[in-house]
Every structure is written in C-alpha cells, then in structure tokens.
Amino acid sequence: MIIAIDGPAASGKGTLSRRLARHFGLRHLDTGLTYRAVAAALLANGLPLGDEAIAVEIAHNLDLAQMDKSVLASHEIGEAASRIAVLGGLRKELVDLQRRFAEKPPGAVLDGRDIGTVVCPDATVKLFVTASAQARARRRTDEMIAKGQEANYVSVLEDLKRRDERDSQRTVAPMKQAEDAVLLDTTEMDIETAFQAAVDIVSRA
Ligand code: DC
C-alpha cells in the first residue's frame, strides 16, 4: 500500500503524512528532506547550487537514515532545496531513491510535490493537500513564534508565494495535483479535522 501526498509548502501535508503512516502502520518518507539534505551539503561546502554533477553525486550517496529534520528545517535550506529541485538529473537520482523506499513492504506514505504524478503514479491512494496562502502563512508564522523565533506574517506570506511559484512553474516534475488525486483543502480545518478527513479518504480507497 502506497499513500502519495502532495501539496504546497506549509499545507500541513507533513503532519498529516506522519499521522497517516502511524495510523495505517506504514513507513513514512518526507521527500522534501531529500532535496533539503542535498542543498544543505552544497551550502555547507560552499558549492554552487547550480552544479548538477556534484548535486547528483551527493544524492547518490545520500543515507535516508541520516537525514535530521531539525537540522534541515531552516528557511535558507528550504529556499536552496527549491532552487536545486529544478535540476532534472538530480531529480532522477532522488526519485530512484524514493521509489526504492516506497516499494519495501509493508508500504509507505510519501509526501512531496511530485509523488502522485512522477514518483508513485500507481499509488493506492493520492491526496493533494492544500490551503490558502494566507492560512498557510498564518500557521507558519504561529509555528515560528511558538518556537521562539522571529516571524513576520507579511514576509512569510511573500516567501510562500515565491516558493509556490517556483515549485509549480518549473519544467521538470512541477508541483501539480495528479488527475486521480483527491483534493483536501484544509483552509477551514484544524489538524484533527484534516486528519479525520484524510483517514476517511484513505479508508474509502
Ligand atoms: O516540502 P519541503 O519544504 O521540505 O521541500 C523543499 C523543496 O524541495 C521544495 O520547495 C521543492 C523541493 N521538493 C520537490 O521538488 N519535490 C518533492 N517531492 C519534494 C520537495
């Protein structure tokens, strides 16, 4: 069983994916972390984000078990990840890795931007999780404030819009809802309601 979850930044797809995996006894991969891990390695070594050969080599040697979400969560790494995500050769390398993860029993929940369209086109069930840019910016701002970080709603909103634009307009594997994906718009939902809605969609499938 493979559950494919796509959607824009800060849509809540990460939390939903983790909870769905726990609920259905599946493994979980946040594929955004694979792009973030490659970006972080390039940044840490002062390497240019456009160097595809090096990015591919880093991706080839990536160990999923070593990816640390807390280290990779920064805004700078997220931006860099979105920039290198346009490189076709890098995507191919990471998609291979993600597919190998998905195919191991008992199955998995994968979340990202191109899971239903490219990584797992034959997934058992596909969700496209979204929310208005304003709702996502509000949640992201509250999250940052709760962590004691400085956050400005207007600049968070602008960043999210820029990232959505880049992720959905790139030529290779742009973020888009797969034709057979179920749309889950969480603008008016809290996390519990969204989780129940997601469980219902998966159970029906
Ligand atoms: O979901 P995230 O914020 O961790 O993702 C960081 C960037 O990685 C995102 O802006 C675009 C890229 N990405 C991608 O292109 N394809 C995926 N399946 C996951 C992430």
UniProtKB/TrEMBL annotation:
NCBIfam families listed in its UniProt record: cmk
Principal subcellular localization: cytoplasm
Location in the cell: Cytoplasm
Catalytic activity: CMP + ATP = CDP + ADP; dCMP + ATP = dCDP + ADP
Domain Cytidylate kinase: 3-202
Biological process according to GO: pyrimidine nucleotide metabolic process
Protein name per the record: Cytidylate kinase
Keywords: ATP-binding, Cytoplasm, Kinase, Nucleotide-binding, Transferase
One MF annotation (Gene Ontology) recorded for this entry: CMP kinase activity
Enzyme Commission (EC) number: 2.7.4.25
